[in-house]
Amino acid sequence: MSALQTTTSQPLVSVVVTTRNEEKNIGNCLNSIRAQSWVAIEAIVVDNHSTDATLEISAKLADRVATKGPERSAQRNFGMINLASGEYVMYVDADMILSPRLVESCVEHIQRTGAAALYLSETVLGARYFSRVRRFERGFYDGTPIDGARFFHRPTFTYVGGFDEALFVKGGCEDWDIDKKIKQVGTIVALPAITAKRFKGNWEFAHFVADRSVPFIPEYAGIYHNEVEFELVPYLRKKSYYIQGFDGYIEKWGRCDPDIRRQMGFGYRYWTVFTEKGKWLWLLRRPDLAFGMYFLRGLVGVIYLINRK
User: Fold this and answer.
1) Which CATH number does the domain housing residue 24 bear?
2) Is 264 a member of any domain?
3) What are 19-62's pLDDT values in tens digits?
């Protein structure tokens, strides 16, 4: 696929998808990569020993498929550092679908701003109440310390050593950690969710996202997260697992670090991130969703305190 660099003036973008038993999702993810308006793309799947049809489906749609474990940090590093050929790299999960002009918008914005990485908008799909709550909540985090960059200038990503595989063998915070490493040598900016250009044509996933309560907007540049419809117990289990990475992350950077104080602090996580820059109006407009959001935030807080003990 690196031959694209000789047949087009576009810089190559390597999109890395990490998988484990994702046969239900990987086809849609890879097809959305193939449907991008940006031509110079290579799709790389790094699988963690799936036992279903993930590898078979990936082999038909991806440019490169490899097996690597354990966990996401090692998978992402292997794909983004060892396998990727692009000037830019991007990582996504198998249950994500890329809007049709996302990669094009990323390249244009990162070149225009001179940033080392980009935060991307993420829209959670789903029709049920708590899926809509999760979609509402995720919108508050775009471009904040709660967000995590997904699109990188590959030489910069490689220079800082990628994700910390030794620290994040399990648990979460690897996305916050890589952000802090990138910020030591460059800047991270947010890609505007609504761009000046609109996608012209028929996008094959327009009805797919609409059927999951999100109308397709041709100007949207972001990720549609096709999570399963919300279920409380699996959600809390996932959050409990992510919490296992908190202590190592805090110890690495220190409790007084300004990003960590906001990411882990009650005031920012439960109030400021939802009210800064006029976002408090969103709470007033949708009190039904705000109630559900704070209900979930409260449960996650309880899980955090239990794990701390």
Assistant:
1) 3.90.550.10
2) no
3) 999 999 999 999 999 999 999 999 999 999 999 999 999 999 99
Residue matched to tokens 């996302």: 102
Q: Which residues contact 238 (CB under 8 A, 6 or more apart)?
A: none
248 occurs within a structural domain: no
Range of the domain at 197: 4-231
Cβ distance 153 to 110 under 8 Å? yes
Give the number of domains in the chain. 1
- Whole-number Å distance between alpha carbons of 263 and 261: 6
- Pair of tokens at residue 266: 């009650």
For the segment 91-97, the average pLDDT, to the nearest whole number, is 97
Q: Give, as one character, the DSSP assignment of residue 35.
A: T
Q: What is the pLDDT of residues 186-212, one digit of tens each?
A: 999 999 999 988 999 899 999 999 999
According to the model, what pLDDT value does residue 73 have? 94
Q: How far is CA 302 from CA 36, 48, 105, 182, 197, in A?
A: 41, 31, 39, 32, 44
In a domain, 294, yes or no: no
Instruction: State how far the alpha carbon of 211 is from the alpha carbons of 128, 178, 193, 258, in Å.
Output: 12, 35, 21, 41
Comparing CA positions, the residue from 139, 125, 146, 135 lying closest to residue 281 is 139
Tell me if 82 is assigned to some domain. yes
